[in-house]
Amino acid sequence: MTLRTGDFDYHLPPELIAQTPVEPRDSSRLFVLHRQQVADTWEHRKFRDLTEYLRPGDLMVFNRSRVIPARLRGRESSSGAAVEVLLVRRLRPGVWQALGRPGRRLRTGAQVTIGTPAGTGSDNTVHVGILETHENGLRTVRVSNESLLDTLGELPLPPYIKEKPDDPERYQTVYADVAGSVAAPTAGLHFTEQTLNDIHDIGVHTAWVTLHVGLDTFRPVQEENIGEHRIHTEWFELPQDTADAINRARRDGNRIIAVGTTTVRTLEHVAHNLTALAHSSTDSDPYVEVISTSGNADLFITPGHEFRSVDAMITNFHLPRSTLLMLVSAFVGRERILAAYLEAVRQQYRFYSFGDAMLIL
């Protein structure tokens, strides 16, 4: 059966879109969904109760990517018109993929000035040149001084968040230390230092990957046939110590729990495309031994996907018709995940980036 984008739609009352994060981080709610039990088996807990569902020997894998101040507001040089450039992905030093608005002001050859205007005696200025425009709305741009992005850029909050958090660090995970994302890996926003300590205290192991969140976080699926959607690539790294931890957990029969869909995508991409087989994969044992690698993840996970690395996941509630909702549908089953979302709406869970969490076991 061909799946349509409309098959991944649901109604969300606007008031359930979380505008601000809860304090403390681990006081958010936790929707617990048990895949292996009968349909519609779930529990409603607090995130701080997470350790009750973990076992000694479990391996939790986190995405350590940090959000960069990728939103640049400035003036188009020839007209003086206010414009905005959103850096999406670094292609090489000084050259980025970007989105821009208004598009009519940001055609090939346009120049944008961000920061102190020229002629004031200050060098606190970045110039962005539009090198090329593309049919999908992307632009290739050159940034004159990347070292000033931290000073002149803003965190690129999703468009459904209308209020800036008082503390910009609330849109970062407590463990984020590798700059490069244009959106937060939001499942990790619920973790505190105490949560991480509690996890270690019960014998759960932790490991780290990096995947820099990119364009598909901002863009809904436009094609009605999901097989025609072209997913954008995102840079990732799976280091050697993480590969070792994953292989050890698998050999010992322990669960691998991915924190966030970005971590799921990284692990599944590696397992499907960049793996070395230590043994022959069979229908009864689809798991493969992974290796340390980095590159561009381009795996589009939809229902029918065979998961090779992930046994459980922590995630937030995702937008309708999005690639992320398709991913969790592949893990749980489309009808069951939509039933869970309907229950979450009934129970007044908070949705999206600053919203509540779901644990899928």
Keywords:
globular, 26% strand, 2 domains, alpha/beta, 361 residues, Thrombin, subunit H, QueA-like, six-stranded antiparallel β-barrel
Radius of gyration: 21 Å
CATH class label of the largest domain:
Alpha Beta
List the strand order in the largest sheet. 2-1-17-16-14-3-12-13-15
Largest sheet: 9 strands, mixed
Question: How many alpha or pi helices?
Answer: 6
Task: Return the string of H and E elements.
Answer: EEEEEEEEEEHEHEEHEHEEHHE
SSE layout:
Elements: E1 29-33, E2 42-46, E3 59-63, E4 65-67, E5 71-76, E6 82-92, E7 95-101, E8 111-115, E9 125-133, E10 139-143, H1 149-152, E11 178-181, H2 193-201, E12 205-211, E13 234-238, H3 240-251, E14 256-259, H4 261-273, E15 293-297, E16 312-316, H5 323-332, H6 334-346, E17 357-360
Parallel strand pairs: 1-17, 3-12, 3-14, 4-11, 14-16
Antiparallel strand pairs: 1-2, 5-6, 5-8, 6-7, 7-10, 8-9, 9-10, 12-13, 13-15, 16-17
Summarize the structure in words.
The protein is of the alpha/beta class and 361 residues long. It folds into two domains: 259 residues, 3-Layer(aba) Sandwich (QueA-like), CATH 3.40.1780; 82 residues, Beta Barrel (Thrombin, subunit H). The protein is 17% helix and 26% strand. It is built from six helices and 17 strands. The strands form three sheets. The chain has a nine-stranded mixed β-sheet with strand order 2-1-17-16-14-3-12-13-15, covered by helices on one side. Helix 5 crosses helix 6. The radius of gyration is 21 Å and the shape is globular. About 2% of the residues have low confidence.
